[in-house]
Amino acid sequence: MSWLWASFRMFFHNRLTFLVNYWLDLIETGRSDKHLKKSFAMNLQKILYLFCFGFGFVYCAQVASAEVSQHKYNVYVSGLKVGELDYAVNTKGSAYSIRALMRSTGIVGAFKKYRYEGLAMGRTNKGNFFPQKYAENSDTGNRKSNKEMVYKNGIPRLTQSEDRKDHWLDPKTQKNTADPLSAIYGLLSDQPLENPCTQNITVYDGARRYSIKLVSSQIDGTEMSCQGIFTRLGGYSEKELSQGIEFPFELKFSKQDNVFRIDRFVMSTLLGRASFVRQ
């Protein structure tokens, strides 16, 4: 089983794509999965109320009063299930909030528990994201870390527990960038029937800057596939850049009523084909 754990470890640490960067570092919560599932929406609501002190009660009242939509994905690498992703989204008007939880499962989870929790809040305008706060906590088994970015005039103010590396980018230089969860939310959202797959999002995670761009779409009856490119823009080490700068990915949708709804996200990694399959 050593090869399996080594592959899983590499998949979670090589950071070849934005999903590897932010959803595959998992946080150990010390709670049972059953309890997590039951309390997921409740915990989101509680955190929103706590954040009201930072954002103002008018904004929080708008978001907290909205209904929570739940999303769940199974994660596979080369056909082997390695984890699960749960996230909840609150939207009302232009305001949104997202809470994400990812954890290892199955054979991999039996050997090592990886968990990640993240939360993002902000507003949208004409398809663009204007985050107001992003927070994450992660436990990779060997390293625990937390990070928070609060945005003022589009500039993230960063606090984190992890020591910064020389090649990481200064947050003061990253004005008008989206946070990782906001970018993922935009990417996995429903697509319109006309002119779909036009997202082009520049993201800063507190260290690295990258872009997520959908470049083409193909519709076949009730099915649609969108091709995209993940591009590393800055803040990466020489070793990371030597592994590649641009990485293709594919989103697959099916038509539901008057929108296309995502079924799966597919990407290629050094370990093989990785897929996020919606339940």
Describe the overall structure:
The chain is an alpha+beta fold and 279 residues long. The protein has one domain (2-278). It has helices spanning 2-13, 18-22, 33-55, 57-64, 106-111, 180-188, 238-242; strands spanning 68-77, 80-92, 95-104, 115-125, 128-139, 144-152, 155-160, 191-192, 200-204, 209-220, 223-234, 246-256, 259-269, 272-278. Strands 1, 2, 3, 4, 5, 6, 7, 8, 9, 10, 11, 12, 13 and 14 form a 14-stranded antiparallel β-sheet that branches. A hairpin with a 2-residue loop joins strand 10 (209-220) and strand 11. Helix 3 (33-55) runs antiparallel to helix 4 (57-64). It is globular and about 50 Å long.
Residue stretches low in confidence (pLDDT < 50, at least 5 long) are 1-60
What's the N-to-C terminus distance? Answer: 27 Å
Q: What do the pLDDT scores average to?
A: 80
Shape: globular
Per-chain topology:
Layout: H1 2-13, H2 18-22, H3 33-55, H4 57-64, E1 68-77, E2 80-92, E3 95-104, H5 106-111, E4 115-125, E5 128-139, E6 144-152, E7 155-160, H6 180-188, E8 191-192, E9 200-204, E10 209-220, E11 223-234, H7 238-242, E12 246-256, E13 259-269, E14 272-278
Helix pairs in contact: 3-4
What can be said about this structure in brief?
By secondary structure, the chain is an alpha+beta fold.
Q: What would the keywords be for this entry?
A:
globular, 14-stranded antiparallel β-sheet, 279 residues, disordered N terminus, 7 helices, alpha+beta
